[in-house]
Write a structure and sequence with these properties.
alpha+beta; 5-stranded mixed sheet; 13 helices; 19 strands; 31% helix; flat; disordered N terminus
Length: 419
């Protein structure tokens, strides 16, 4: 009988935590604006669901975000949005990496969706993305891409979110059958598609959008490789390798500018990189480091050292900086591009350990050439007229034991131009 009683008996259930018991310890007031409709939802939650539900409300309150609309309404008004990864990291809304440099976020009823909303709705990220893509697909039907006079195609969608159609390859897959397809989303309302033979026209169109007044999305253009999409990997001497390199560098500069706006001044100088054109025609990323204050150095190719009195000391390859073992940097915990904080400043003898790209005299000439030119918001010199070829630095940079990446070895400053 004891065996049968154990088999058929129902174990006692622990009492469900009340709304007050969930919200009180989390500091969420019972009269929180907008909470009333959610109290009925709470009554239907199982015991394991109530604690995460309360944590979600606490998270919304901590960030100053509003409560979501009820799922019964929100599920019919969802939209995917592609943004630069640094922006997704900065803003903190629910997102997932989609492509290199791009992340996917979701809007519901015109508002960006935090992760806490998914918990309150009781749905997964995958559920929301699938529904949002279905709705975007339905809104995109019967809207063909427009062929521009240059031969490339542009999304003709009138909702201001053409870039989100990047997520729906079926809309543009057949534009250039049998040819390599390249795509660009330089702004939220721009989606450009081109075959390889029209890459110069694509780059020109990207440049026009980026030069416009609206906010940029991504300068880098992407290539379809099978079912995947990657930043176009064009190698020298491909004529479009240098424009793609410059576009990717401009994306880095944009992210670093956004960082510089929010980093505390007492933490150090949040330098914004620029570019320098080498004798070989390549643009390399550059950042200045002036003596006297800590610096927050991004991961650039070159560092230009400047004395406290403003005297240029030379430009060196950043990858050789670990040779100065006395100068230890501290990684900065921050969204976006990685930065390292340095408090000291190298001595002349320590600089001599690094691989040189340009001497102090050559760097001074570069400053003079750049002084009369608008910098476009970049810190330090950009491509301008300059100097003789520092052949010795090129020879040193080509050493097999150099920590400088292979694609940067042998580069020298050489003669600059506006091209």
């Amino acid at each position: 009988m004891a065996f049968l009683s154990r088999f058929f008996s129902t174990p006692e259930r622990a009492p469900l935590a009340t709304l007050e018991e969930i919200l009180g310890p989390r500091g969420v007031p019972l009269d929180l604006p907008g909470l009333e409709p959610w109290k009925d939802e709470f009554k239907h939650l199982l015991a394991p669901e109530r604690e995460p539900w309360g944590d979600a409300l606490k998270d919304l309150l901590a960030h100053g975000w509003s409560l979501p609309p009820l799922w019964q309404e929100a599920q019919y008004d969802l939209a995917p949005r592609l943004v630069p990864t640094w922006m997704a990291e900065r803003d903190g809304y629910c997102s997932r990496a989609h492509l290199e440099g791009l992340s996917l976020r979701i809007e519901a009823c015109g508002q960006l969706v935090p992760a806490a909303w998914l918990t309150l709705w009781g749905v997964t990220w995958e559920d929301v993305v699938e529904r949002s893509l279905d709705q975007l697909r339905e809104r995109s039907l019967n809207t063909p891409f427009q062929r521009l006079p240059s031969g490339i195609y542009r999304g003709g969608f009138k909702d201001g979110h053409s870039a989100s159609r990047f997520l729906l390859p079926e809309l543009w897959r057949g534009l250039f059958p049998g040819q390599n397809t390249f795509l660009a989303i330089p702004a939220e309302d721009e989606f450009l598609v081109a075959p390889q033979v029209l890459l110069p026209q694509l780059v020109e169109a990207i440049g026009k959008v980026l030069a416009g007044p609206g906010p940029r999305l991504m300068g880098t253009f992407y290539q379809q490789v099978g079912d995947k999409f990657l930043p176009a990997n064009l190698q020298d001497p491909h004529p479009m390798a240098q424009p793609q390199r410059e576009l990717r560098q401009s994306d880095l500069m944009e992210a670093c500018r956004a960082q510089a706006l929010v980093l505390p001044a007492e933490l150090g100088d949040a330098v914004v990189p620029g570019t320098i054109r080498t004798q070989q025609g390549r643009s390399v990323s550059y950042a200045p480091w002036q003596e006297g204050r800590p610096v927050l150095m991004p991961e650039v190719d070159l560092i230009g050292f400047i004395a406290a009195n403003g005297r240029p000391l030379g430009i060196y390859f950043r990858q050789t900086l670990p040779r100065i073992s006395e100068l230890r940097g501290t990684p900065v915990d921050l969204w976006g591009p990685r930065r390292t904080r340095y408090e000291g400043f190298p001595t002349a003898s320590q600089l001599a350990r690094l691989e040189c790209f340009a001497t102090g005299e050559q760097m001074a000439e570069l400053f003079k050439a750049a002084a009369g030119r608008p910098r476009g918001g970049q810190a330090g010199p950009s491509a301008g007229s300059a100097l003789a070829d520092p052949a010795a630095s090129g020879a040193r940079a080509s050493q097999a034991s150099s920590p400088v990446p292979a694609h940067l070895r042998g580069l020298s400053l050489g003669v600059q131009s506006d091209d």
